[in-house]
Known about the structure:
By secondary structure, this protein is α/β, with parallel strands linked by helices.
Amino acid sequence: MSAPPPVKGKKVIVIIGAGLSSVALVKALRRGDSTISKIIILEAKDDIGGTWNPKQCYHNLQTHGVRAGFSLLPWDRFDSPYDHAHHKDVHGAMKNLFRKENVVVVEEGAQHQNFGQNSNGGNEEEKEEEKSNAEKNMTTEKRVEVTVYLSTRVKSMEMVQTTSSSSSRVKLNVLCTKFSEADKDKEERALFADFVIYTGTTHQPKVPEFAQGKNKYTGEILAAADVSSNKFDEILERKHKVVVLGGSKAAMDTVWNFNQRGYTSFVWLFRKTYWGTNFSYFQSSFINKSSLFARWRKVLQYVFMKVRLDFDMSRSSWLSRVGLFILAKVGYLLNPFDATTYDLGNFHGAIIEPERMQPYRKSSHLRGEIGYLEGKKLYTTKGLGVDADVIICCTGYDNPKAPILFPNGTKFFAHEESGDKFWKGMVTPAIPHVLFMNTFSLGNILHDATTVGHWLRSCYFPQLFDKPIESTKSIIQKGLDAQNEEMKNTKCRSYNLWNSFDRPVQYMYYCGRTFEKEIYEADLLSCSRKSGGISISSPIRRWMYSWSCASFLLADDTNVN
Length: 561
């Protein structure tokens, strides 16, 4: 099947996922004169928010960083700018921004007349061509229309040829309105787009497949996201014996929540705990950026980034261990249990309050792995039995599995590919019409999405998108080759792009530097930090690079105008 022709200079953009990344992307893509005619956001849940959707948040979930670091969001209240923000406040601020940007939110996705045609009836090509012709009459002065369709899940994406064989469009096969996980009570529709931005990486909580006995277990297995405030209160009221599984931020938060309520009928089971950044150091950069403490933090940032750089080169090097030792001794990094294990492989990126350390250490905890389950008991691989009415799995999220289908019938699963297949960690030459939104900093989603949005609008769309498809692929491949050449000495050629802490620092710095440079050269965005083209091939310049990397990667989103 061929797709309707794209309208030259006018793009229909589809964003998958209505989380923080989408909020920042919309604001950046709509800025100034635009070649975009319409932005459509597809969200599988029945509300916006992504990770911050109240129905997907565990009890008392708060932001890693301070409220002031989310300057893009219009808060309902701003009582404590230098403290954490509760997930309900984040969700409310996101809704405020959507209202401020005049974004239309449609609760029943299939009911909107401009969404798309039913895939089971009508001539899609004719109707889509009529829509494209109508878009031709739009003026550049008209503000870009943005619509969010809730309860709408992308089943697959399909690359189809346009009526002019020199280019392609993306056909999204979509399940919309009220659907169950078994795909019942669904309606399937088709939607054509000129460009797709895939942001939904935290849609499905990951619950491990336990080696043995899952079918013999008579207790309750929950993901962290399932432990809402009501569920948390129910666990306490019924005095359930709980096992908290994992060593991540979610596990730390869950243990802290139990401690705060004086509840002791739980065991914290983990393979390892992680080093995290001291929250007081993080706060200092917002409270008084010119203070001696804040300047000291900048020095420690440099040391940390230097350690990470060396860690990328050799995980067992003495330099990384000495650097981590220094950072731990001055209190920049914290670890509840492994304060003598100076291994950066145990760095997770959590921001930890110092006052939580003692309660963590006093909690009932066990280092090990699950062997099998039976009745309401959990047995470790060493044979130790633990009572478990409820197991709370704080084990992250599964990556999206929606495939991309090519005209020849082959399937492409982006999130199964390694990082050396993606230019800037987000675009692969095989599919130039799809961008897989990823972070290139140490977790500053708003900053990264804003930067990417400006780059798409000012660089990618005007310079690449209207070219013949093969020409676009060639340019992307050339950029990818240069990227892999720059990182050839990292010993991380097949790094996991979809795991924040498997990515080499060189990759993150490369993305940040090139994004910033290209946007700046387009004269559409001025950034406060201009990194320049420092080569990392020289050992001397690597020291210069580490400081620039620390300065850029740990910046807050206020640095992007």
